[in-house]
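User: We ran a pulldown and think these components assemble together. Before we commit to crystallization trials, I'd like a predicted model of the whole complex to look at. Sequences follow.
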Amino acid sequence: MTKSGFVIANLFRKRTRTILTLLSVIMAFLLFGLLQSINSMFNAGADFVGATRLITQARVSFTTALPISMLPKLEAVPGVARVAYWQWFGGVWQENTQLIVFAADPLRQRDVYPEYLMPDEQWQGFAKIRTSMIAGKQMADQYGWKVGEKIPISSNIYPQKNGSKSWVFDLVGIFDGKDDDAKKRTNQAFINYDYFDEANQFGKGRTNFFILKLTDSNQAAAVSKTVDAMFENSPDETKTQTEKDFNVGFVKQIGDIGLIVRWILFAVFFTLLLVVGNTMAQSVRERIPELAVLKTLGFSDGSVLGFVFAEAFALCLFGGLVGLGLATFAGAAVTKGTGNQFPVYVDVRVWLIGIAAIVLMSLAVGLLPALRAQRLKIVDALAGR
Amino acid sequence: MLRQALAITGLNIRSIPERWAPSLVIVIGLAGVVAVFCALLAMAAGFTDTLKATGRDDAAIIMRGGSDAELNSGLDRTQTDIIEEAPGIAAGADGKPEASAEVMVIAELVRKDDKNSGANITVRGVEPTAFTLRPKLKIVNGRNFTPGLRELIVGSGVLRQFQGAEIGKVLRMRGSDWTVVGEFESGDAHESELLTDINVARTTFQRTGSSSVLAALDGAGGFEKLKSALAADPRVNVDVVRERDYFSGQTKQFRQTIGLLAGIVTIIMALGAIFAALNSMYAAVAARGKEIATLRAIGFGGLPVLVSVMIESLLLALVGGILGALFAYVFFNNLSVSTLGQNFTQVVFSFKVTPQLVIEGLIIAVTIGMVGGLLPAIRAARLPVTTGLREL
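Assistant: Here's a predicted model for the assembly, 777 residues in total across the polymer chains.
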């Protein structure tokens, strides 16, 4: 019998116990996968870009708009390559579904966000057609929009000149991300700023955000300082930060989700440690005479330790991988079921952390029983002492 | 039969200390499930409580049509005046309509446990009637703002969660300095706001009209009267909502999200706990195989054995559930947190571990204990006496 065969045979000598323990481990890692992906969504959120873009907003709050007239001043700052701007539209689809829709300058948008891919003629259409709109692939897929359609969207902020808050835009393009990270951020749409600014009833020439693309990411700190100093003590004081910091701050507004998730994970793993630890301890206790026989036959202390460790590891590894696999499917189902409103991506990062957790777990639960097996004195064990 | 069951149960329970490890697995496992369940839903309960406590039935909030939130709404000066003079609004002590036009702006404050990222806080410019309209609002420290000066009073919820708005501090908004002169309590969502004089807010932030109008309703028919009068007026296009409904309506999405999260987490954890409980109880039964067989041999029935195993499992589960609920209560009850509200600003609220949540948690624990005990109990009862006695 091979060594691994021996380990597996040992695991299944009490089949019910092994299967039940495995199921507990699977449940724990299923939860771990789901929660960790929520956690990384809230904490990281933004390691997708370096500091190559800065976001300038009004210092008081980004809900206060800044005048577009700042644009030439921002472009003149050394280190700034190109500036785009976004004005929040307050888009509402049908009855009550809020959409992420910004009014943006088409060609500036294209220059500052190279990670969004769209055929050239669609970019041109976005720039030339006044009532144009482009939508991210996720959003277009979810609502079944096709290029060339007229899309009715109302705004919960801006009435048109005639007082109506129902707007209609021509969907001229659908953009997708050039990589997985960018693809996840296509649940948004942009409308042509010039048309929006002219057709809405108030708030002429203002925008919530300027997005500054830098020539060199090392200059991020210097540029943001220059920009904020330039508008200090004016009615439109600014706050400029990297896109990453902005995103982290934005997500933090929702509340300290990370804290809650960490508490749950702690509870889950503490319980799991007990469950698996108890199983391992029990199975070693029952087998003390057998282990002594193994040693009598000439197996070293080290290999007996190895057997017990291998059992713990096999339990955690198999349960962990199945659990993480289930989490991947469940996450995809939740993402799809909620129409990307609540995206749960169990991705490579989550898997890596999960595998680290598996290793830690097996060490924690295997250590005491394995040491006990290693230190076993043959005479005492055989005598049942 | 009952006596038999009780006798065996007593025997079982007295032997728990001898095999504490597997029993502890059940207790801790269920404590975990119940604690997580109670804590998560306590958050939803606290948020709902805070918003439901906000607003009165006999007051209405008037915003621009289709705005959903004050942040999105805007009324010009003429519209504001028309609304304040509309029929259906109660008259105040001075004979004037009891209505307050309010301007909402957003400031950023930094969370206490943070260093740099700001969170949105509502700054509300109000008319003097605002205080009559919100009778729960009381100044507890310092004094009220002086109309005409750039002074603010701060809600105690803001002070609990954010830094830089203590009395005496100066806030800088759009190139102007505002001094905090007082602190107020209201026990509702307004505690997450800063208040000031509407006219100062208008001139500083270049706003001419208002974001919304809050008005006391004149008697039972006041709401309908006001609503139809404003709907009939071509100069305004507004939504009229009862104040309480406006705030209660904001809880739905939060409750749904947290409810979904709590549901998924509890189900998965509960499944894990059931497997663990099954494991432990099987082990408990196996360890006592000989003992059980002996009992059967001297005349104890199968049913008392089954009942005794079930009771042990239920008891352990109940102890675990109580521990979990206690843990949630001690560590989470009244824990103050904040999240984004409808206006895209922070609403400060506290976790509320309600008796109802505790009871629901205990029901979950007992159910898990029952499921986890049943199969091992059946096995224990069915074990043939001869096999049991021959074991070991």
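Chain A touches chain B through 55 residues (CB under 8 Å). That may be worth checking against your pulldown data before setting up trials.

User: Thanks, that helps.
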